[in-house]
Structure formats: C-alpha cells, structure tokens
Amino acid sequence: MKRITVFCASSFGTEKIYEEQATALGKTLAEQNIELVYGGANVGLMGAVPDGALNAGGKVIGVLPNFLRSKEIAHLGLTELIVVESMHERKTKMNDLCDGVIALPGGFGTLEELFEMLTWAQLGLHKKPIAILNVNGFYDSLIELLQTMTTKGLLKEVNREMLLVSDNIDDLLHQMRNYTAPTVGKWIDKKEV
C-alpha cells in the first residue's frame, strides 16, 4: 500500500485518546512509508492525523472543497493540497488517490464516507481494504448493528467481513495488507432468496 485515505472527525471529541491515536496513526503511516490522503483541514482529528505524519517526515495529500477553504480551515503545511468544487468530487478524488481506507472516530461525515466506500466495494467498483481503527470501543455499537443486519438477512456475511476492524494500528495495517476482496457479487438470483 502506497497511500491510505483516512476519514475522521473535524473535532477532537470527549476523550484524549482519540487525538492520541489519530496522531499515532499519522506517525505510523509515515514510518511505514505510506502516504496519507485526507480531507485537507487543520481542525480536530483531521488536523492531528496529518500533523503526526508530517512530524515523522511523511507525505500528506489533502483534498478540500473550495467552500471549506474559504473558511480558513485548510492545513497549510501539507505536501500537497488539492482543492475541488464539491464534497462528492472530494470523495471521488480521495478514492482515486488511495490503496485503502481507515476510519477513525467521527460523526455523520465520517460514517457517510466510510459507508460510501463500503458500498462501492460491495458493488465491485473497487477492491481496496476498508478498515476501522476502533479507538477505545468507539465503533462497538456500529459493529453490533452490522452483525444485526447480517443476522436479519439484509447484509451478506461476505460483505460484512469486508470491513476490517482493530483497536491496534499495526494489526489493522497487517489486516489491510493481507486483504482479499470477496468474489461474490452483490446481486443474487431468486433461487438464493
């Protein structure tokens, strides 16, 4: 993996460990010669991840919509800042630039980005590993919900297993390096229902 896209909150949240792990993830990516692609801002966890990478000598590409740049939240110390016109163009560009995705704690935006990448993978539009760094159990309820979706027959087990999860950065990167995308298609025929 040459580049990983990280989705995360534009705030720090209530637990210091979120910022600590965001910084550690950026640092680890730099130490492992993996470039960081992220949303281009300098606030919250979105500022901590690139700072961790840059302080360890890593390369960081930010992708920021123009309307957010005008709010002066752009990170000015990046290796490269790509300015796009829309949120959709931002996600498309971040996908084009990366070999895998990691979600840190976040809110609506983080979940929307994560699930769009999962949906694209489920439909066979890419075969990249998609992962959650489950900092301090932040995503436990979401993981439980995904299992409920599978149990209730609304999500195939093979598709649920596309989402890699760990609370340890090195373990998560190991899982991502060894990921193989499912060969089962999304669509089923009536005999399988």
Can you give a write-up of this model?
Its EC number is 3.2.2.n1. Belongs to the LOG family. One of its GO terms (cellular component) is cytosol. This is Cytokinin riboside 5'-monophosphate phosphoribohydrolase. It catalyses: AMP + H2O = D-ribose 5-phosphate + adenine. With 193 residues, this protein is an alpha/beta fold. The protein has a single domain, classed as Rossmann fold. 42% of the residues lie in helices and 16% in strands. The chain has eight helices and seven strands, in the order E-H-E-H-E-H-E-H-E-H-E-H-H-E-H. Strands 4-3-2-1-5-6-7 form a seven-stranded parallel sheet, with helices on both faces. Helix 5 links the parallel strand 5 and strand 6. Helix 1 packs parallel to helix 2. The relative contact order is 0.15.
Quick structural summary:
It catalyses: AMP + H2O = D-ribose 5-phosphate + adenine. With 193 residues, the chain is of the alpha/beta class. Helices cover 42% and strands 16% of the residues.
Quaternary state of this entry equals single chain
The CATH topology is: Rossmann fold
Write the CATH architecture name. 3-Layer(aba) Sandwich
Distance between the termini: 37 Å
Please give the largest β-sheet: 7 strands, parallel
- Based on secondary structure, the structural category is alpha/beta
- Poorly predicted runs of 5 or more residues: none
Helix content: 40-55%
Q: Report the principal-axis shape.
A: globular
Note the beta-strand portion: 15-25%
Order of helices and strands: EHEHEHEHEHEHHEH
Total of helices: 8
Radius of gyration: 17 Å
CATH class placement: Alpha Beta
Keywords: Cytokinin biosynthesis, Hydrolase
Family: Belongs to the LOG family.
EC number: 3.2.2.n1
Catalytic activity: AMP + H2O = D-ribose 5-phosphate + adenine
